[in-house]
Structure to design on (904 residues):
């Protein structure tokens, strides 16, 4: 399945025309409403056909308004990332990584296949990507939790229904409707250590009448700060069989390579001799950056929303959705380091050089300036206006224009202008005279950099960008004709969508003159034109082998101006064997087009946490493959990785093509008659992605290369990494995306719900379990398969085989409460040597409890405690931050919240 001019497009058009023709014929031959089955039908996620039952569509998890309120969550990502189907990397408030210009954004990652392979909808329609320009996914921050009626999570491929990106599944967030009255709520919480404050205020007002409805909402939330050192005092590594602080090799005194090949470090004592130096020692000189980082970053959100509809006639209604969200967030960062993005050579006769040799200043942290602060402010606007109505018997139609726009600014304080750094070292242009226009600087030794120099070389970067989405959709659904087993359901529609993204980095960043990740401007757009048809065909009804058997089929034709044409389809069976047992199966093709940063993103560089397997290689056994390879590569004996980060090249690739995927799910829904109130589900899933766009993390590339006998793996090629021939350090490492990978994910989902009464309490126990059997990635043809299932992968997050979420809820009169547990299974560190400390993480279970009291219909108060037993995050050797996988485990510890609501 590839994008090209396809003659099957004509067949799709004929199919749609046939559907419309059949619908007209059905109207002409149907005279009474009783002849068509239209009982209480609803449209559910995964289908455009209104249906009587939700369980026949596919594996869907529903998080309703009551569960959302009980959770005490102030953001959607908190709810979604607890689901067992979520895995891998997704931005949240407790990690601050640059995810396609997404500092401060939050996402959901179904099956761990990537945030850009999960389609996020609001009321069944697409949302604009969010961040600070040219982004790859929706920022969940923009959706006020207080306005959500429910969240439906379809864990199945749905490109035939919704178009591109629905590879791993669909998250459909549905807002409240028909709200009459007003309600206000206030929430406050913090950790038991007295930090990480969270507060929110929500106000909603609505009115309904025979002519229509109107609902308005205001939401404000603010999250506090948790310093990383309060949870992890320093970065840890295994040294001589025990965990010790390792820190960064960008030292505050300056680490330098002398002409004779020796490495030295300059004075780090603020009261010491500024010209003193000694042999570099990681244990003595490395920098502990944790006090200059946050485990939780502050964020503020302000949202306004307006939803309304009015009847224009008996059969036609006008509706609109208006939303605006302002987000302000920032992240603390360690002081910047010189020598990362541009070499600093200081001659032997330079007045600041006390060594008598030419030297290369490899790293010098600007500790005198203090920590940096990354900042972001984004504005996201969404407007939907449309018409919907009915015609004939049981036919519905809708047409809507959807416009979403996101703009943002971001940057960093205390960034060094490298051109000015060079000037302060050039004695021909700088001066030591007081008030000199260009002051001379001494970067060798902590405390030798004057305030005049800092004022001259440091500045605040400012980048800006945005995302824009415009679309028109029109759909029709109803019943075509009657078969012996029932009426044939039908839906069809068209969509025209234009996506645009842009990003303009600070001019000095573009020029490579800034002491930060070098970036090029990004600008790109594409237009999609699509048409789809969907059928629900009843094959059997009240037969010997089936209460009912329904064939579901859908086909979508897509035409992208950048990639050409493609057709995707979905076929499924919904088999009600007996009243208590239903079997469902779906096979679907899916696709994902490269997003704008993947296509048009310029080359960028950044220091990423990376494990070098050659660190300490000479101490390994002589028969060790790693030892043999490191020695053959020319890594010096006694080499120890000087820090935990390596400068890595990333960026876009304009030669990328769309990904193709196939997904198969089969499952059962059982409601045993011997135990009323019990529902059990089981679903097997198998997703294959070809031509996959893949970035392989640096740690993984290095680990695979040096564990392959004879350095025979393609990852050992110089296009992937190189080393400094003198020091042995990795001085080039690439992780740019390519269309070379194949991926396969298989596993089983288990679900259960038991509703019962005990001691006059209305009670329910729910269970949601996901078992990841395989997640195999072949990064390019002929390469060995990388097995992610059961592994922690550094920058990609955790792929524990078992994940589960279970809860007990009970309610009687004014009292209600719940007790929930989130389980994350054990996993091995893919980059670690077996037997090392932190080579695996044990299973972890987080317990949460909530209690709610409603003495009157107009008033309620709720109290909750998350991580009740104060479970600590496990140590992970190739950690992302705070000595653990911050994308998976809880850093905060035990925390509480209280919520008060009033309705009138």
């Amino acid at each position: 399945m590839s994008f090209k001019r396809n003659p099957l497009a004509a067949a799709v058009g004929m199919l749609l025309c046939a559907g419309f023709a059949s619908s007209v014929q059905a109207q002409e031959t149907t005279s009474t409403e009783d002849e068509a089955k239209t009982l209480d039908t609803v449209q559910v996620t995964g289908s455009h056909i209104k249906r009587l039952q939700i369980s026949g569509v596919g594996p869907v998890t529903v998080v309703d308004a009551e569960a959302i309120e009980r959770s005490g969550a102030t953001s959607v990502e908190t709810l979604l990332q607890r689901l067992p189907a979520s895995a891998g990397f997704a931005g949240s408030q407790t990690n601050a990584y640059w995810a396609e210009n997404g500092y401060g954004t939050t996402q959901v990652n179904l099956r761990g296949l990537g945030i850009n392979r999960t389609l996020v909808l609001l009321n069944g329609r697409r949302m604009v990507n969010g961040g600070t320009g040219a982004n790859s996914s929706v920022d969940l921050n923009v959706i006020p939790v207080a306005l959500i009626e429910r969240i439906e999570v379809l864990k199945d491929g749905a490109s035939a229904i919704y178009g591109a990106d629905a590879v791993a599944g669909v998250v459909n967030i549905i807002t409240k409707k028909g709200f009459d009255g007003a309600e206000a709520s206030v929430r406050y919480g913090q950790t038991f250590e007295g930090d990480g404050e969270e507060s929110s205020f929500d106000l909603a007002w609505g009115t309904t009448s025979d002519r229509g409805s109107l609902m308005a909402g205001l939401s404000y939330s603010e999250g506090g700060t948790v310093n990383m050192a309060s949870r992890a005092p320093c970065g840890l590594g295994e040294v001589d069989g025990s965990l010790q602080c390792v820190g960064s090799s960008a030292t505050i005194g300056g680490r330098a390579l002398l002409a004779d090949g020796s490495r030295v470090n300059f004075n780090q004592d603020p009261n010491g001799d500024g010209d003193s130096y000694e042999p570099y020692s990681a244990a003595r000189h490395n920098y502990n950056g944790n006090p200059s980082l946050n485990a939780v970053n502050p964020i503020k959100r302000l949202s306004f929303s307006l939803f309304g509809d009015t009847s224009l006639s008996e059969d036609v209604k006008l509706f609109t959705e208006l939303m605006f969200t302002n987000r302000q967030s920032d992240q603390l960062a360690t002081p910047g380091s010189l020598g990362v993005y541009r070499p600093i050579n200081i001659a032997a006769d330079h007045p600041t050089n006390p060594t008598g040799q030419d030297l290369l200043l490899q790293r010098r942290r600007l500790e005198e300036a203090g920590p940096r602060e990354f900042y972001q402010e984004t504005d996201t606007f969404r407007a939907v206006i449309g018409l919907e109505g009915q015609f004939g018997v049981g036919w519905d139609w809708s047409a809507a224009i959807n416009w979403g726009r996101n703009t943002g600014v971001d940057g960093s304080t205390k960034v060094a202008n490298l051109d000015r750094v060079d000037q302060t070292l050039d004695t021909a242009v700088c001066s030591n005279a007081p008030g000199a226009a260009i002051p001379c600087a001494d970067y060798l030794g902590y405390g030798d950099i004057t305030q005049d120099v800092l004022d001259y070389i440091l500045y605040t970067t400012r980048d800006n960008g945005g995302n824009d989405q415009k679309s028109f959709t029109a759909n029709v659904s109803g019943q075509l004709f009657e078969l012996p087993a029932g009426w044939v359901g039908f839906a069809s529609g068209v969509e025209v969508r234009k996506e645009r993204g842009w990003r303009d980095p600070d001019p000095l960043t573009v020029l490579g003159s800034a002491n930060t990740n070098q970036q090029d401007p990004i600008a790109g757009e594409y237009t999609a034109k699509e048409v789809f048809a969907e059928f629900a065909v009843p094959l059997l009804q009240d037969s010997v082998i089936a209460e009912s058997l329904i064939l579901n089929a859908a086909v979508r034709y897509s035409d992208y101006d950048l990639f050409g044409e493609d057709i995707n389809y979905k076929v499924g069976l919904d088999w009600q064997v007996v009243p208590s047992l239903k079997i469902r199966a779906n096979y679907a093709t899916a696709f994902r087009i490269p997003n704008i940063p993947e296509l048009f993103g310029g080359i960028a560089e950044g220091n990423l946490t990376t494990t070098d397997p050659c660190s300490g290689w000479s101490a390994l056994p002589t028969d060790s493959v790693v030892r043999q390879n490191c020695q053959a590569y020319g890594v010096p004996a006694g080499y120890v990785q000087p820090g935990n980060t390596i400068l890595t090249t990333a960026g876009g690739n304009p030669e990328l093509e769309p990904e193709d995927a196939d997904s198969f799910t089969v499952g059962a829904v059982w409601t045993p008659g011997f135990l009323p109130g019990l529902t059990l589900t089981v679903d097997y899933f198998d997703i294959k992605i070809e031509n996959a766009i893949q970035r392989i993390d640096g740690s993984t590339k290095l680990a695979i290369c040096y564990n392959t006998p004879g350095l025979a793996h393609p990852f050992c090629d110089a296009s992937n990494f190189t080393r400094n021939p003198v020091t042995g350090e990795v001085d080039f490492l690439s992780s740019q995306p390519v269309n070379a990978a194949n991926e396969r994910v298989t596993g089983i989902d288990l679900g259960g719900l038991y509703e019962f009464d005990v001691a006059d309490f209305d009670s329910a126990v729910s269970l949601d379990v996901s078992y990841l059997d395989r997640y195999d990635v072949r990064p390019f043809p002929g390469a060995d398969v990388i097995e992610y299932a059961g592994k922690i992968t550094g920058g990609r997050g955790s792929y524990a085989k078992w994940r589960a979420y279970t809860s007990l809820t009970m309610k009687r009169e004014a009292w209600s409460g719940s007790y929930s547990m989130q389980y994350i299974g054990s996993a091995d560190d893919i980059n670690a040597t077996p037997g090392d400390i932190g080579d695996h993480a044990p299973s972890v279970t987080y317990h949460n409890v909530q209690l709610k009291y409603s003495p009157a219909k107009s008033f309620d108060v709720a109290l909750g405690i998350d991580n009740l037993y104060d479970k600590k995050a496990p140590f992970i050797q190739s950690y992302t931050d705070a000595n653990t996988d911050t994308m998976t485990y809880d850093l905060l510890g035990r925390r509480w919240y209280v919520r008060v609501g009033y309705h009138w």
User: Anything to note?
Assistant: The first strand starts at residue 60 and ends at 64.
